[in-house]
Amino acid sequence: MAAHYARLSGSADPLSQPKLTIAREDIEATQTKFAVSGRYVVLCPGAEYGPAKRWPAEHYAALARALHARDGAPIVLLGSPQEAALCDEIAAHSAGACRVVAGRATLLDAIALIAGSRGLASNDSGLMHVAAGFGVPQVAVFGSTSPLHTPPLSDRARVLWLKDELDLDCMPCFDRTCRFGHYRCLTAVTPERALAALDSALI
Question: Which end of the chain is more exposed for a tag (fewer CB within 10 A), N or C?
Answer without folding.
Answer: C
